[in-house]
């Protein structure tokens, strides 16, 4: 087992942490197997002055990496699952889910005030339409300010743009060792997480049997159940960064409880539902929950969101 493995990754500090975690895990499990990283600059990393919803959504963070994977330039890609669209290119799949971290959102406040203690009209920075809708539903008086960039950039913008607070994924802050910046871990009842938040996904070529055998040790069965439920929900809604959709599946002893949400951009209209069942029925649960939300008015909400996007 001497043939080297090349891991494709974005170049941000967080992406490199994630890729290096996988690299170190492989080297520990398979001593003597050479593992290297290849940094790939994606469109999502280059286009920073426009909201993702206006330039193609979360797929911009994986497109170039997937192209190199298909061309054989790299052997696998490490993704934050919240950045991965529900549809993948032919010939690729998410072979393993691993390193599940805190799935929730976190508030980083400049004056260390919690969400509901922030002053009326407070300026909250986020690039996520999901977070925007949830924030405005909880506090319609907030001013939501679009900010993009990596973790360090957004923490810097909190100060430079004199924002009252920003909302970020708790997992990223923890992985980078800056969880001391977190003012409050937001209750999922206030800020339901994005699909796949806190999970690392390993994307590789379907036919690469050798690599599947090498990486099998990374798989977390309960995390896979969670992803099957959440991503089938997302796929049925045909959603992404362009629309305010949220979902989180809690898995315990083979059972799954999936909570999902669809909202208008201003947070005034929100549909939240949940569904539970056996983990081996995770995909069905995701689809059924999506169908339920669509029937309760989610279809009209999504149509209106897409209409505004293209106006």
Short summary:
The protein is 36% helix and 23% strand.
Account of the protein in words:
This protein is α/β, with parallel strands linked by helices. It folds into three domains: 1-99 and 199-219, Periplasmic binding protein-like II (D-Maltodextrin-Binding Protein, domain 2, 3-Layer(aba) Sandwich); 105-185, 3-Layer(aba) Sandwich (D-Maltodextrin-Binding Protein, domain 2); 220-311, Double Stranded RNA Binding Domain (2-Layer Sandwich), CATH 3.30.160.40. It is 36% helix and 23% strand. The protein is built from ten helices and 13 strands. The strands form three sheets. The chain has a five-stranded mixed beta sheet with strand order 2-1-3-10-4, with helices on both faces. Strand 11 (245-252) and strand 12 (255-263) form a beta hairpin. The model has no long low-confidence stretch (mean pLDDT 91).
């Amino acid at each position: 087992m001497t043939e080297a493995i090349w891991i494709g990754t974005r170049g941000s500090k967080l992406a490199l942490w994630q890729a290096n975690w996988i690299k170190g895990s492989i080297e520990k499990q398979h001593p003597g197997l050479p593992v290297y990283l290849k940094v790939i600059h994606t469109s999502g990393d280059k286009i920073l002055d426009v909201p993702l919803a206006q330039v193609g959504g979360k797929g911009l963070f994986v497109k170039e990496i997937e192209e190199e994977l298909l061309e054989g330039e790299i052997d696998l890609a490490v993704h934050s699952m919240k950045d991965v669209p529900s549809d993948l290119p032919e010939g690729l799949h998410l072979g393993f889910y691993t390193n599940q971290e805190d799935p929730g959102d976190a508030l980083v406040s400049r004056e260390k005030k919690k969400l509901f203690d922030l002053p009326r009209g407070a300026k909250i920075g986020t690039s996520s339409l999901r977070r925007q809708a949830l924030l405005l539903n909880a506090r319609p008086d907030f001013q939501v300010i679009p900010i993009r960039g990596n973790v360090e950039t957004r923490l810097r913008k909190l100060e430079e743009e004199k924002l009252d607070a920003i909302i970020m994924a708790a997992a990223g802050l923890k992985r980078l060792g800056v969880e001391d910046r977190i003012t409050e871990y937001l209750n999922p009842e206030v800020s339901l997480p994005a699909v796949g938040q806190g999970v690392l996904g390993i994307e590789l070529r379907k036919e690469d049997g050798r690599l599947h055998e090498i990486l099998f040790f990374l798989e977390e069965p309960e995390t896979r159940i969670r992803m099957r439920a959440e991503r089938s929900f997302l796929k049925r809604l045909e959603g992404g960064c362009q629309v305010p959709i949220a979902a989180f599946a809690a898995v315990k002893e083979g059972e799954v409880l999936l909570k999902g949400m669809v909202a208008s951009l201003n947070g005034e209209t929100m549909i939240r539902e949940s569904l539970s069942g056996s983990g081996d029925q995770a995909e069905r649960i995701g689809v059924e929950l999506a169908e339920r939300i669509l029937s309760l008015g989610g279809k009209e909400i999504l149509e209106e969101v897409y209409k505004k996007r293209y106006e």
